[in-house]
């Protein structure tokens, strides 16, 4: 027990923390570098010792121009011994690539500087992705908003035919609905992604789930003259029924809208190894491999003059994928141009889930037998 | 009577622009849903100006404007790009002007006339 209470060796701590730590001697040479500093700068930590830090990793600015040490805040810190913080500073790795770091420098009591390096790439990448998302959202929202506003602005104009006025009202209604659907989908996706959605699992049979999903899209199928086929085995499993229906409905809806007139869409449910597999198969034009790669991206829609395809928010598949990830599963797509599309939803189940509901079994086996007064 | 050709892949935007041009501005409007279709319509109808949406699948607005400039029968047509993005000045050599999207349908005609210095 006394072993566990022995204080850790400070040098061991410094060597092991995931923060790059380097000491710079008054001469500008590196006196010590820990493992993380070596990793960030693509050097063996020991090989950094004795090298001039500025000449090794800080010799150019982000734009590639030369960076004289005299102008570096570290030179100033060596002189005035005041701390410096450099956020998003470009450092140069041994292989010539750059790495963006948050850097601090503070004077050591014995002279020289202690410099910390934190790789900022992940944080910057996250910020960039967020910015890109906001850009996409604003574009997606502005498009229907522009049509809605444009139509409403013109609706009172004198000298318009009844047909024109009615078509403007139609445009306003259609785009208001599209806007509402977009807002719903964006919020839903953010909720699912943030993990703010809890799954309410219940037992269901493949047959009943398939029937509800097919019912939900029957009207759309009729309107597009597409027939729907269920091919479900007798399996049953635990999942969030509403969310799973949402996923299947979305896939079926896409399949119908990509189908030729008179085509058929099949929903097949089958048992796979430790999972239930649900295939949604259409006879549409399919997707090329490079399109297939992007199909789950937010707001991705194929370039298409097919208006019924473009009415969606472009978020359905992204949301569906996120829902299946919450279930521990996934959706994959396979396709050949001209030969239709097959999306496969994989829902993992433990072998016994296929027979006995887990919760029920644990209640039967695990709960102590309390005396029931009614007995 | 001016004749405006509108090239935009969004049918709702075309319908709105048509009312803005025909009813509000009192001009004639012809339309096309893609850059390639736009070149055909331009050859057939000889418009006085062409409005071109920048974000279109396939041949985009810049590509469409370049195709107009490369065609010996169409190269002198006044071209205006419609865009939600801020355009760099380097497209000035290509087109006669840029209109921000979403456009105001009540002033679309006036905006076109101002850019092309038409007397109204």
Describe the structure.
- The complex is a heterodimer of chains A (375) and B (120).
- With 375 residues, chain A is an alpha+beta fold.
- Chain A is built from 14 helices and 12 strands.
- In chain A, a hairpin with a 5-residue loop joins strand 4 and strand 5 (113-119).
- In chain B, strands 2-1-3-4-5 form a 5-stranded parallel sheet, with helices on both faces.
- With 120 residues, chain B is α/β, with parallel strands linked by helices.
- Chain B starts with a strand and ends with a helix.
- The mean pLDDT of chain B is 92.
- The radius of gyration of chain B is 13 Å and the shape is globular.
- The A-B interface holds A 139, 142-143, 145-147, 149-151, 153-154, 157, 159-160, 164, 167-168, 171, 174-175, 303-305, 307 and B 9-13, 15-16, 19-20, 23-24, 33-34, 57-58, 84, 101-106.
Which features characterize this protein?
heterodimer, A: five-stranded antiparallel β-sheet, 22% strand, elongated, disordered C terminus, B: 120 residues, alpha/beta, five-stranded parallel β-sheet, 4 helices
Short description:
Chain A is an alpha+beta fold and 375 residues long. Helices cover 44% and strands 22% of the residues of chain A. In chain B, 37% of the residues lie in helices and 20% in strands.
Topology diagram in text:
The complex is a heterodimer of chains A (375) and B (120).
Chain A: H1 2-5, H2 10-16, E1 20-24, E2 30-33, H3 35-41, H4 45-48, H5 53-57, H6 73-80, E3 84-92, E4 98-107, E5 113-119, H7 121-154, H8 162-193, E6 201-205, H9 206-223, E7 227-232, E8 236-240, H10 241-257, E9 264-272, E10 275-281, H11 289-294, H12 307-310, H13 316-326, E11 330-335, E12 341-348, H14 358-366
Parallel strand pairs in A: 7-9
Antiparallel strand pairs in A: 1-2, 1-5, 3-4, 4-5, 6-8, 9-10, 10-12, 11-12
Chain B: E1 3-7, H1 11-24, E2 28-32, H2 35-45, E3 49-53, H3 61-70, E4 79-83, E5 97-100, H4 108-116
Helix pairs in contact in B: 2-3
């Amino acid at each position: 027990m006394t072993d566990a209470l022995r204080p850790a060796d400070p040098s061991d701590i410094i060597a092991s923390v995931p923060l790059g730590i380097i000491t710079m001697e008054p001469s500008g040479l590196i006196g010590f570098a820990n493992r993380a500093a070596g990793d960030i700068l693509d050097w063996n930590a020991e090989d950094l010792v004795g090298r001039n830090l500025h000449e090794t990793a800080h010799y150019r600015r982000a734009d590639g121009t030369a960076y004289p040490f005299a102008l570096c805040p570290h030179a100033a810190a060596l002189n005035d011994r005041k701390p410096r913080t450099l956020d998003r500073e470009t450092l140069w790795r041994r292989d010539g690539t750059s790495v963006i770091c948050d850097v601090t420098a503070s004077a050591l009591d014995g002279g020289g500087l202690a410099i910390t390096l934190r790789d900022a790439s992940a944080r910057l990448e996250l910020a960039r992705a967020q910015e890109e998302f906001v850009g996409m959202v604003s574009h997606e929202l502005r498009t229907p908003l522009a049509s809605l506003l444009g139509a409403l602005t013109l609706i009172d104009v004198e000298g318009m035919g009844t047909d024109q006025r009615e078509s403007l009202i139609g445009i306003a209604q259609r785009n208001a609905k599209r806007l509402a659907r977009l807002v719903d989908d964006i919020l839903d996706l953010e909720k699912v992604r943030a993990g703010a959605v809890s799954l309410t699992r219940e037992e269901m049979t493949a047959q009943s789930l398939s029937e509800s999903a097919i019912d939900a899209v029957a009207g759309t199928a009729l309107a597009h003259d597409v027939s729907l086929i269920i091919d479900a085995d007798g399996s049953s499993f635990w999942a969030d029924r509403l969310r799973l229906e949402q996923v299947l409905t979305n896939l079926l809806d896409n399949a119908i809208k990509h189908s030729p007139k008179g085509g058929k869409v099949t929903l097949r449910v089958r048992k796979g190894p430790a999972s239930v597999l649900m295939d949604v198969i259409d006879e549409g034009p399919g997707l090329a491999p490079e399109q297939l790669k992007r199909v789950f991206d937010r707001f991705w829609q194929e370039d298409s003059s097919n208006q019924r395809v473009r009415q969606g928010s472009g978020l359905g598949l992204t949301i569906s994928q996120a829902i299946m990830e919450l279930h521990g599963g996934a959706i994959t797509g396979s396709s050949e141009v001209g030969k239709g599309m097959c999306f496969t939803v994989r829902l993992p189940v433990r072998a016994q889930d296929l027979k006995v509901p887990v919760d029920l079994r644990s209640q039967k086996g695990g709960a102590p037998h309390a005396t029931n007064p009614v007995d | 009577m001016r004749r405006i050709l509108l090239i935009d892949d969004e049918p709702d935007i075309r319908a709105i622009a048509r009312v803005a041009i025909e009813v509000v501005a009192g001009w004639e409007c012809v339309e096309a849903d893609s850059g390639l279709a736009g070149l055909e319509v331009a050859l057939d109808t000889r418009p006085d100006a062409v409005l071109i949406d920048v974000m279109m699948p396939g041949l985009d607005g810049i590509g469409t404007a370049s195709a107009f400039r490369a065609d010996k029968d169409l190269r002198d047509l006044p071209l205006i790009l419609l865009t939600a993005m801020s355009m760099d000045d380097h497209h000035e050599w290509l087109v006669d002007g840029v209109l921000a999207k979403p456009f105001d349908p009540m002033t679309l005609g006036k905006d076109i006339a101002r850019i092309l210095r038409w007397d109204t």
